[in-house]
Design goal:
Structural class: mainly alpha
Order of helices and strands: HHHHHHHHHHHEHHEEHEEHEEHHHHHHH
Oligomer: single chain
Shape: globular
Number of strands: 7
CATH architecture of the largest domain: Orthogonal Bundle
Strand content: 5-15%
Distance between the termini: 55 Å
């Protein structure tokens, strides 16, 4: 895209935003809808992020329940939650009632408990409210929270003709539900088989479905976690899998695309947590105080961790005064080792996510990472040590720097590989806690190694 085209696109976006703001201020529903329809979903998220909360609330109210629900369903989760929290409870309840059950339950789960209960209480349909409460009881990302309700079921005693007649009579409803499979259940609602549409169409109308169905189909318990679901869909090319309770009763279907989206969301959350956004997703339209608290929750404890590392320098202040050149290499040694350790952290977290690695596989990680650490540490140590020796014309300084970097690299990759496993076993999020632990340890050990080796060879570092 050329500069002129980009400029024209920005002008169109700004024009659409102005049009939307004017429509909101004038309480003009049709104009607001027209303004939104000129934008795709990504551009709508951009426009919503530029509206004040007063205008956002007003837009949601003038659109009406159906259009507001459609808009919210395509917003980023943090944007949707921000709007729902500010809306009057009856309006928020009506919007959630109009959303797909899976999405509504996800949003309710992310709201503050008090807000979620107040909005739930405002949903007048007891069936809908009961389903949302059941979904919220599941842990986030498990089969029960991701499944679509309303699987198309038929009794085991039905005939092919009866099934086809029902499909024709309710064709519009089934089309909306994106039916891929038909399920056969017994009198207790237990899943006993799966029907393929091709087999139905090509069979005699009088034939019982029990003779056509695929018996003992693959099912998943409603408590199955996301990691296991992802593995199952990777091994089997199904569009969806039936979800059953502990007694084998069919509850719904978990689609492949829902698992893929949830996996992508979890990876995005892990990235945010590893970057220091620890108390939920942050967007810049949030209140300033809330954003500061989210970041300080990470930055505050890091002050203490950094003081621990700095104490090593304070304890070796005399050595540092004698060899001022060490001040140049201390941050380089700690930073290079930290980068190596973060690579090991990333590999361990990824392998844990994929199920390749288990929390008890310590020796496998030690053997694999030690080899990488020794080779990379030797290479990096030789490079940085040579630079130090040539810069100051002192071989002893080069050896000190090289040895410290090599040993600290080995230590950092071992820690980086093992810490996520230990945290996973302790039920602590590896993406959240691995970074601070690794940074503190590599800084402290790097400073200690450089200054200790320098103190031991102080007589050879004179004048450096």
């Amino acid at each position: 895209m050329t500069t002129t085209e980009k400029k024209h696109e920005r002008e169109l976006m700004d024009e659409a935003l102005d049009h939307l703001e004017n429509a909101i201020e004038n309480r003009n529903t049709s104009e607001a809808l027209n303004a939104l329809e000129t934008l795709d979903w990504e551009d709508q998220r951009w426009a919503i992020s530029h509206l004040s909360m007063r205008r956002l609330k007003l837009l949601t109210l003038i659109l009406g329940t159906a259009d507001a629900a459609k808009l919210i369903s395509h917003l980023a989760e943090a944007q949707a939650i921000e709007i729902l929290e500010e809306l009057p409870r009856p309006e928020a309840a009506s919007i959630l009632d109009s959303l797909p059950r899976t999405l509504a339950a996800d949003l309710l789960r992310e709201l503050h408990d008090e807000d979620a209960q107040e909005i739930l209480a405002g949903i007048t349909d007891e069936v809908v409210r009961g389903e949302l409460e059941r979904r919220m009881a599941y842990s986030e990302g498990c089969a029960g929270s991701l499944m679509l309700g309303g699987a198309v079921t038929f009794p085991v005693a039905a005939s092919v003709g009866e099934v086809l007649a029902d499909l024709g009579e309710h064709a519009e409803d089934y089309a909306d539900r994106n039916v891929q499979y038909l399920y056969v259940v017994d009198e207790a609602g237990k899943l006993v088989g799966v029907l393929r549409l091709r087999d139905l169409v090509l069979s005699l109308r009088s034939k019982p479905v029990r003779e056509l169905m695929l018996r003992d189909p693959l099912t998943v318990p409603d408590s199955m976690e996301l990691e296991d679901l992802a593995d199952l869909f990777e091994q089997n090319k199904f569009y969806g899998l039936p979800v059953v309770d502990a007694d084998g009763r069919l509850l719904g279907v978990v689609p492949r695309d829902a698992v893929a989206r949830e996996t992508a969301d979890e990876q995005a959350d892990m990235f945010l947590q590893a970057s220091g956004i620890v108390n939920g997703e942050e967007i810049r339209s949030m209140p300033l105080g809330e954003r500061c608290v989210k970041r300080l929750a990470w930055l505050g404890p890091n002050i203490g961790l950094n003081l621990v590392a700095a104490s090593v320098i304070a304890a070796n202040e005399a050595t540092l005064r004698e060899v001022i050149a060490l001040a140049v290499f201390l941050p380089i040694v700690s930073d290079m080792s930290g980068c190596s350790g973060n690579q090991a952290v990333a590999v361990s977290i990824r392998e844990l996510t994929l199920g390749i690695l288990r929390p008890g596989d310590y020796w496998r990680v030690v053997l694999k990472e030690a080899a990488v650490g020794m080779i990379n540490g030797f290479v990096l140590g030789c490079v940085l040590g040579s630079i130090a020796a040539l810069w100051k014309g002192n071989i002893a300084l080069g050896l000190v720097v090289a040895a410290a970097l090599m040993l600290n690299t080995i230590l950092s990759v071992l820690l980086g590989g093992l810490v996520p496993l230990l945290l996973k076993r302790l039920k602590v999020d590896p993406a959240l806690a691995s970074g601070p632990i690794l940074t503190t340890c590599t800084d402290m050990c790097g400073f200690f190694l450089v200054l200790s080796f320098a103190a031991a060879t102080l007589g050879h570092l004179a004048g450096v």
